[in-house]
Each structure stands twice: as C-alpha cells, then as structure tokens.
Specification:
The protein is of the alpha+beta class and about 180 residues long. The chain is about 55% helix and about 15% strand. It is built from seven helices and four strands; from the N terminus they run ααβααβαββαα. It has a four-stranded mixed sheet with strand order 2-1-3-4, with helices on both faces.
Length: about 180
C-alpha cells in the first residue's frame, strides 16, 4: 500500500510540474537578439500593457498560457515582452528601450505581436526584417497559431557564420559577468 501511495504521489507531482511549465520571456532586446541568432529562430516581439490592457490579458490567457502555444513557442521563436505598464515599476533603461522599439515599429495599439529577424551591422546598428504582425485573434490557440506559423515560415535561417559569431559573443559576455 505504501509503494502504491508513493508511486501515485510521484505521478501526480510530475503531472503538476508539467502543467506549470513556463516560457522564458526576455525583456532585454540585445540578449534576445543574441539568443535568436544562436538558436536560429525569429524574435517574437509582444508589445503589451500587462497591468491595464484587457485585450492583452485576454490574449495571454486564451493563447500564450496554453500548452499548444508553449510547445510552439519553445520550438519556433525567441519571446520578447515589451511592456508598457501603468502600475508595475520598470527601470529607466527598460522604459527607454521599449519606447524606442514602440516608435521604430510604429505600434499604435495593444496587444501587438511582431515576428522579426534581427541583423546587427558592423557599425553596431540593428535592423529588423519584419515577418508579420498580429494582435488578438478570436478562436483560441489553434486559430492564432495558424497565423503565426505563416509568419514563421518567412524566416530565412541565419548563416552558420552569424550563429558562430553570436555564440562567441554570448560566451564572452558570460565570462565577463562572472568576473564582475
């Protein structure tokens, strides 16, 4: 009886861990670009008002928090949250970064999702190839992901050289952080 109880407890706890699986939403665009290059995936830019935008919250609950989206996102994209909260505090650097990206992409309403491929020129300037744009779409994760897959299909993978350079830069940055 004791073995049965322990086995049952193990099964239930493992199911709970899987159900609570979360996604990594990056907030630093430069780090996300480096990850995008090393993983050879497009950037998924989510412009949101997390603590006040009803449609943003609805998109999160109906799509982004579903097992279908979580599995899709882990395989297909690098997630970046560009938040414009009213009550949640943010650093000045994060506010500046998010405002610059909002202006660059001319985001006028929320939620707004852009799939892009980033390229950093030798002079350090970043350019973005837009693969598509969407917002809230009724119909749940299946309908939403159908549209997102059409955007991801436009992504042309980074060259091996770009990936190698990004991996070296990431390792160098990690080594510098450990020394500090």
């Amino acid at each position: 009886m004791k073995k049965l109880f322990i086995t049952l407890l193990f099964v239930v706890s493992s199911m709970t861990i899987q159900a609570q699986e979360k996604l990594t939403w990056h907030t630093n665009i430069d780090e996300a670009i480096a990850i995008s290059k090393t993983q050879n995936k497009p950037l998924f830019l989510f412009f949101t008002g997390s603590d006040w935008c009803g449609w943003c919250i609805r998109l999160q609950n109906e799509v982004f928090k579903t097992p279908e989206f979580i599995a899709w996102a882990k395989e297909k994209v690098v997630l970046v949250e560009l938040d414009f909260p009213r009550r949640t505090p943010q650093s000045d650097a994060l506010k500046i970064q998010n405002n610059q990206l909002q202006q660059f992409f001319q985001v006028r309403g929320y939620p707004n999702v852009r799939l892009v491929k980033a390229t950093v020129a030798s002079d350090g300037k970043t350019s973005f190839e837009q693969l598509g744009e969407t917002g809230y779409v009724a119909g749940g994760p299946t309908v939403w992901l159908d549209g997102a897959n059409k955007m991801v299909d436009k992504f042309v993978p980074y060259t091996v050289e770009v990936q190698k350079t990004a991996k070296k830069a990431t390792k160098k940055k990690k080594a510098t952080k450990k020394k500090a």
